Amino acid sequence: MDVFAQLVESYLSTRAAPFTDALAFDAIGRIYESFALAYRDGRDIAARSEIAYAATISGITLANAGLGLVHGFTQPLGSFFGIPHGVVCGTLMAAVNSVTAKKLRRDGLSNATAFKKYVKIGKLFAGAHRV
After folding, report:
1. How far is Cα of residue 130 from the mean position of the Cα atoms in its chain?
2. Nearest Cα to Cα of residue 118 among 107, 127, 102
3. Domain that holds residue 76
4. For 46-77, what is each residue's pLDDT tens digit?
5. pLDDT (tens digit, 9 = 90+) per residue, 74-113?
6. Domain contains 111
7. Is residue 89 domain-resident?
């Protein structure tokens, strides 16, 4: 979940660029296609390789575009309450992204770059967009 959060946050970052967008969106697609397979069968080397590739790309995109609110919460929650980093990421992703997307919409920013990126990720996970 940390890798997924890093990719989504760097993709949505105000410091994102076409280079990081292309890398992050491709890797998000690889997670979409491989995560359940790797989880169900830890011996599925192809699926695990896709997740490992996504992890590598997440490091590149976070170093170049930065992260967001989810990762802003991980250090204090992990330090003060001993919650594993990936658990914080996975737990907060839905809530943080829901609030952010609703705020963009409420503020009339449906044409904003970040909102369009949310739509693109949504279409990917709905199966409407193939990477």
Report:
1. 17
2. 102
3. 2-125
4. 999 999 999 999 999 999 999 999 999 998 99
5. 989 999 999 999 999 999 999 999 999 888 888 888 778 9
6. yes
7. yes
Nearest to 3 by CA among 46, 66, 62, 45: 62
Angle made by CA atoms 78, 24, 45, in degrees to the nearest 5: 80
Residue 65 lies in a domain: yes
The one-letter code for the residue type at 78 is G
Of residues 68, 126, 113, the one with CA closest to residue 93:
68
pTM of the predicted model over 0.85? yes
Q: What total number of domains does the chain contain?
A: 1
Between vectors from CA 112 to CA 104 and to CA 95, what angle results, nearest 5°?
A: 35
In CATH, what number is assigned to the domain containing residue 76? 1.20.1090.10
Torsion sign over Cα 62, 67, 72, 74: negative
Query: Token digits for 11?
Result: 């993709």
**Is position 91 within any domain?**
yes
